[in-house]
Amino acid sequence: MMQRREFLAQSLAIPAAILSGSTLLAKDSAPLPGQTKNSKFAVNVEMWWTKLPFIQRIEAAAKMGFSAIELWPWRGKDVNAIHETCQRLKIDIIQFTAWGFKPGLNDPNNHTRFVEEIDASCEIAKKWNCPMMTVVGGDDIPGVSQEKMHEAIITGLKKAAPIAEKHGIMLILEPMNILVDHKGHCLYGSEPATKITRAVNSKMVKLNWDLYHMFITEGNLLPNLKKGFDQVGYLQIADHPGRNEPGTGKINFPELLKGVAELGYHGHIGLELRPKTTELAAALAVQKADNW
């Protein structure tokens, strides 16, 4: 067993931790893989540890040293168990998905249901002490122009904004990419996304600025982020191609993360990515990318 531990530590370049079975134990005061130098990260427990039951994924994130998680819809999950687990482990939930792809926010016929769901989701967010919730624009509607669909998103968000403001929970609208992951989606790119949130004009309606989607859609990550920085509520990352951890694709993450900090973003960054091999290797790659 000792030889196996030493081999894993050396081959994966773990400078300060020992892997024992599935449990990661800190050695002295050195950081665990989920503990990073400059940025704060929230690991996505929908895409990491996918073979484990959901509560065990949160436990795995805490054992690896992450201070926060993000997740997708709360419906269908054990809300109380998630709350109790996060309380016990002292790990934060930074954001979850309150409104997904279907039914589309880009259809006015869905706005009543959208407002009701935002109200219900705000109660969950308060229970979880979660500051943000992602909302999605919706897929293309046949025969409806993009302009009309975006107008409907603005209208829907304006209806929900007072609820978000009352509860103190930020709605973060996420533009996608239509070239790789979400063909047929109605909202992509920073320019139309910032146009929407600026039109809503609420301090509690901003953008979930996923840098992976933005890289595929338009590139020029830092210049475009700077132009729309006043509309950023949250950032997410993944490398491209593959949607894996930093170092597996084309994005220069040390430069990107440094630039993000220099722009003034100091909130959590979501790791909405698929570990290419193991969660440990992915966490170490994030740690290395943040060591600028």
UniProtKB/TrEMBL annotation:
Keywords assigned by UniProt, alphabetized: Isomerase, Pyruvate
Q: Which InterPro entries match?
A: HyI-like, Sugar_Epim/Isomerase, Xyl_isomerase-like_sf, Xyl_isomerase-like_TIM-brl
Ranges for domain Xylose isomerase-like TIM barrel: 58-286
Superkingdom, natural source: Bacteria
Q: Name one Pfam family in it.
A: AP_endonuc_2
Q: Where is the active site?
A: E174, E272
Give the molecular function GO annotations.
isomerase activity
Q: Which family does it belong to?
A: Belongs to the hyi family.
The molecule here is called Xylose isomerase-like TIM barrel domain-containing protein
Q: What is the organism of origin for this protein?
A: Tuwongella immobilis
